[in-house]
From TrEMBL:
This is Ribonuclease 2-like. It comes from the Eukaryota. The keyword Signal applies. Keywords: Disulfide bond, Endonuclease, Hydrolase, Lyase, Nuclease, Signal. One of its GO terms (biological process) is RNA catabolic process. Pfam families: Ribonuclease_T2.
Length: 277
């Protein structure tokens, strides 16, 4: 019979479409599970999650990050000229678990810029966004860098920090008290586009000052992030405790033995000329 093979062909085509869409769903699922800002496992939006173990203050080095962000706009701190960008700026205050994972997007109010209106000037200086892109929030939308940090990490700081204003104020206070830029400057590690510094020397300077081991991340041989860790009472602690020494080595392996702290002047000059266009 002539119609039977055609039916079989149609059936096979339908099967192939079905298999293909299943594969696509799988790929999308993997993409959704991955996080740009790190993260082994986060929870879904607004879930009850177990209490965190310690805090991580994540700092970014603008001289490195701004090299990759050439597009300028009002919200891009890389384009604000020379103001205070030869210092580490805040990325976020993150609650973490000792197993290397962390809670994310916990129960808590959505970001409200009015809550922190009295802190805005300080935050612009020490916690600037270093790009023009909007960040994801926990409710399927996009928002400012600050909205992202509060909703994703800030809401999980309970019971130590319970509201948005306290979250930003606490981060600023800890950042000011444990001034990494000052420690590195005093040890002779100054922003430079020609010098390279021993990674071990940078880590030792922080250890001597705060009696705790930081975590570093590099990009192209330049320091991109430096993280300080704290117990829940904000006394410094090592970023990775003894059983997890391996993951500490993995985290620092993005840094070569000698690293640079690029001077932000070069990128802000570049940014300024872009603004002039
Ligand atoms: C950290 O120290 C540097 C260098 O001494 C200083 O310029 C900066 O204002 C300090 N930062 C804060 C937040 O106090």
């Amino acid at each position: 019979m002539a119609f039977l093979p055609i039916q079989i062909v149609v059936l096979m085509q339908l099967l192939m479409i079905l298999v293909a869409s299943l594969c696509l769903m799988k790929i999308n699922g993997v993409d959704l599970g991955e996080e740009l800002t790190g993260g082994v496992h986060g929870g879904g939006s607004g879930q009850e999650q177990r209490e965190f173990d310690y805090f991580k203050l994540a700092l970014q080095w603008p001289g490195t990050i701004c090299q990759g962000n050439h597009r300028c706009c009002a919200s891009n701190g890389c384009c604000q000229g020379s103001n205070s960008l030869s210092e580490f700026t805040i990325h976020g205050l993150w609650p973490d678990y000792n197993d290397g994972s962390w809670p994310a997007c916990c129960n808590g109010p959505r970001y409200d810029s009015k809550e922190i209106s009295t802190l805005t000037d300080v935050l612009k200086k020490y916690w600037p966004s270093l790009s023009c892109s909007k960040s994801s929030t926990c409710h399927g939308g996009k928002g400012t860098f600050w909205a992202h940090e509060w909703e994703k990490h800030g809401t999980c700081c309970s019971p130590v920090i319970r509201d948005e204003y306290s979250y930003f104020l606490t981060a600023i206070n800890v950042y000011s008290k444990y001034n990494v830029t000052q420690v590195l400057n005093e040890a002779g590690y100054l922003p430079s586009n020609s010098e390279k510094y021993p990674l071990g020397g940078i880590i030792a300077a922080i250890q001597n000052a705060f009696h705790a081991t930081p975590e570093l991340q590099c990009k192209g041989g330049a320091v991109e992030e430096l993280r300080l860790c704290f117990f829940k009472d904000f006394k410094p602690r090592d970023c990775i405790s003894e059983p997890h020494i391996k993951s500490y080595l993995v985290a620092s392996s993005s840094c070569p033995k000698y690293v640079s702290l690029p001077d932000v002047q070069a990128s802000s000059r570049y940014a300024d000329t872009r603004v002039a266009f």
